[in-house]
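FORM 7B: Structural annotation worksheet

SECTION A. Query
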Amino acid sequence: MTSVWTTYLAADSADACAGAVTAAGGTLMMPAFDVGDVGRMFVAVDPSGAAFGVWEAKAHTGAGVFNEDGAYCWNELHTLNYDAARDF
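SECTION B. Predicted structure
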């Protein structure tokens, strides 16, 4: 497998989001689980095969630097199944 990045999306409830992901045709690579006291997460793939993570923040709320020079600012999905990814 080639090197990849995994994008994490914020959610109020990882468990509720996991249910929505599977209802929309996505597949959980691992069910939601606690990461100590810092958060709850899962990793899934959409119907086009694109992997992503979901993070429910607890002690770790995510990126501490944003809207500043040098901060992360863009993410794109390149897929051969655009319609499935869009619909998901």
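SECTION C. Observations
The chain has a mean pLDDT of 90. Strands lie at 8-10, 27-35, 39-45, 51-57.

SECTION D. Sign-off
Analyst initials: ____
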